[in-house]
Write a structure and sequence with these properties.
Blueprint: H1 2-42, H2 46-60, H3 64-81, H4 91-116, H5 120-128, H6 133-163, H7 175-186, H8 189-222
Helix pairs in contact: 1-2, 1-4, 1-6, 1-7, 1-8, 2-4, 3-4, 4-6, 5-6, 6-8, 7-8
Length: 223
């Protein structure tokens, strides 16, 4: 195990860095998607309600690995059939899109629940003071909702971090993919995967501790 760390340690650290980069990019875009879809779902427009619900149910009903294959292989093929022969997606681009779409569906439910946890009287009070719906959401409801959602968002970050391992199937050089390469080169699968598992565990345990601490502070602040 020590020999593997000495020889491949820097490569594993770089792969972990790419894993975290992919996670942060995906979660950032997922927040935008989730916010848009959640606002569709909490509004009173039936078309937006239908679209938001269809997105959440549809994306959550497709395995992430299938979504990754579709975006990495299927989308470029479809675009080329339309005449754009030079169109390509890198593994990072395809992986970010797939994870953002998948995470966005779950983030939409987190944000929706956060919005609905705020007393409806605050919306009515804000509207009676002359604020329109958009300003009420932006200035009154969402700031309070996001405070409630922080622990769930951190937990979703952890889930997304673990989901990056699935993207090794499209060749993105994240931690799991690097583990496959090292195990193939050294023929030491047990030691290699033990190291990879420990690296994941350290990051995920640290994030879990942060989530619990934030949750305690939020609960104290609400109490």
């Amino acid at each position: 195990m020590i020999a593997i760390i000495q020889t491949y340690g820097s490569m594993l650290v770089q792969a972990l860095g790419k894993t975290l980069l992919l996670t942060l990019l995906s979660l950032s875009f997922a927040m935008i998607i989730g916010l848009i879809i959640s606002l569709m779902n909490v509004g009173k427009n039936r078309f937006f309600n239908f679209f938001g619900t269809a997105y959440v149910d549809g994306v959550r009903g497709v395995p992430l690995i299938v979504l990754a294959y579709f975006i990495y292989f299927g989308v470029p093929t479809g675009v080329k059939m339309m005449g754009f022969q030079d169109f390509r997606l890198t593994a990072l681009q395809a992986g970010t899109i797939a994870l953002a779409m998948n995470c966005g569906a779950y983030m939409a439910e987190i944000i929706r629940a956060g919005i609905e946890s705020i007393d409806k009287g605050q919306m009515e009070a804000s509207r009676s003071l002359g604020l329109n719906y958009v300003k009420t959401m932006r200035l009154v409801i969402l700031p309070q909702a996001f405070r409630v959602m922080i622990p769930s968002i951190i937990n979703q970050f952890i889930i997304t971090l673990k989901d990056t391992s699935i993207l090794s199937v499209i060749g993105f050089p994240e931690l799991t993919n690097m583990g496959k390469t090292i195990a193939g080169n050294t023929f030491k699968s047990l030691q290699t995967w033990a190291i990879v598992g420990i690296m994941y565990m350290i990051v995920i345990v640290a994030l879990s501790k942060v989530a619990k601490r934030v949750e305690r502070r939020v609960n104290l602040g609400r109490g």
